[in-house]
């Protein structure tokens, strides 16, 4: 069973638009949600993360919106740039026990100049 | 500071061969992870070590995949024997350990099994 789901699988936006990437999860015990960004030929790198006590986390052009009741979150990239073209992974973990992240399958974002 | 190092970056193997992938985690990190990445399945956890102790061995990957952590600064992933379906990118990641710590990923090893 896929613990973390992402949609859409791929997304294309024009430069300057807002890209919205969606994520949902199954386990109510998950309370930490990092988003990773991956460029071709590289490993994923942490972009931004949110804890379940918050409903919003902002870092520059990147904002996570979190809805605990619906077990959903989304990553908004405002003023999208061609350099944002990458694959974005949503992940989830519990803050108790050992650290085991569950990753979604990713959203491939293309930003057209 | 050096990040996670993985060698080789590319590996081509014949079906049935044994291959060993290597990983050097970030110095001072206590946790080490091996993942397999494919477009269809995404990131799949193969093994997880905490302070060199195996915490999770990836269930379905147990029969032909074996990860070892020989010391705190070096880990290997052995695939024996290789099959064409093992063609994927193998990623190593490390972290300080404990909940909510960032995982630092290496660049990966792209394995092609003919």
Question: Would you mind describing this structure in some detail?
Answer:
The complex is a heterodimer of chains A (113) and B (114). Chain A is mostly beta strands and 113 residues long. Chain A is built from no helices and eleven strands. In chain A, strands 2, 4, 5, 9, 10 and 11 form a six-stranded mixed sheet that branches. In chain A, a hairpin with a 4-residue loop joins strand 7 (62-67) and strand 8 (72-77). The radius of gyration of chain A is 13 Å and the shape is globular. The relative contact order of chain A is 0.34. With 114 residues, chain B is mainly β. In chain B, the strands form two sheets. In chain B, strands 2, 4, 5, 6, 9, 10 and 11 form a seven-stranded mixed sheet that branches. Chain B starts with a strand and ends with a strand. The A-B interface holds A 32, 34, 36, 41-46, 49, 51, 89, 93-101, 103-106 and B 4, 31, 41-43, 45, 48, 50, 55-56, 91, 93, 95, 97-108.
What are the key terms here?
heterodimer, A: 113 residues, mainly beta, six-stranded mixed sheet, B: 114 residues, 0% helix
Taken from the alpha-carbon principal axes, the silhouette of chain A is globular
Quick check: average pLDDT of chain B? 91
Based on secondary structure, the structural category of chain B is mainly beta
Largest sheet of chain A: 6 strands, mixed
Low-confidence segments of chain A, given as residue ranges, are none
In DSSP terms, counting alpha (H) and pi (I) runs of 4 or more, how many helices of chain B? 0
> Largest contact between protein chains?
A-B, 25 and 25 residues
Structure annotation, total helices of chain A: 0
Q: What does the main sheet of chain B amount to?
A: 7 strands, mixed
Q: Topology as H/E string of chain B?
A: EEEEEEEEEEE
Class from secondary-structure proportions of chain A: mainly beta
Distance between the termini of chain A: 38 Å
* Helical content band of chain B: under 10%
Number of strands of chain B: 11
The global form of chain B is: globular
Uncertain residue segments of chain B: none
* Percentage of residues in DSSP E strands of chain A: over 45%
């Amino acid at each position: 069973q896929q613990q973390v789901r992402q949609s859409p699988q791929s997304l294309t936006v024009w430069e300057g638009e807002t890209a919205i990437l969606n994520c949902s999860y199954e386990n109510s015990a998950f309370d930490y949600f990092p988003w990773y960004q991956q460029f071709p030929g590289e490993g994923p790198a942490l972009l931004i993360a949110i804890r379940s006590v918050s409903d919003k986390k902002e870092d520059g052009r990147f904002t996570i919106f979190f809805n605990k009741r619906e077990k959903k979150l989304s990553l908004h990239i405002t003023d999208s740039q061609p350099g944002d073209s990458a694959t974005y992974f949503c992940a989830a973990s519990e803050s108790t026990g050992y650290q085991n992240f569950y990753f979604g399958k990713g959203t491939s974002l293309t930003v057209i100049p | 500071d050096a990040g996670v190092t993985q060698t080789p970056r590319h590996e081509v193997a014949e079906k049935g061969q044994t291959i060993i992938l290597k990983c050097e985690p970030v110095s001072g990190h206590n946790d080490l992870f091996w993942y397999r990445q494919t477009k269809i399945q995404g990131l799949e956890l193969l093994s997880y070590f905490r302070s060199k102790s195996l915490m999770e061995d990836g269930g379905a990957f147990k029969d032909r995949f074996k990860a070892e952590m020989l010391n705190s600064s070096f880990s290997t992933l052995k695939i024996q024997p290789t099959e064409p379906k093992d063609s994927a990118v193998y990623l190593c990641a490390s972290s300080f350990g404990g909940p909510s710590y960032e995982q630092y990923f290496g660049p990966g090893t792209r394995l092609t099994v003919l």
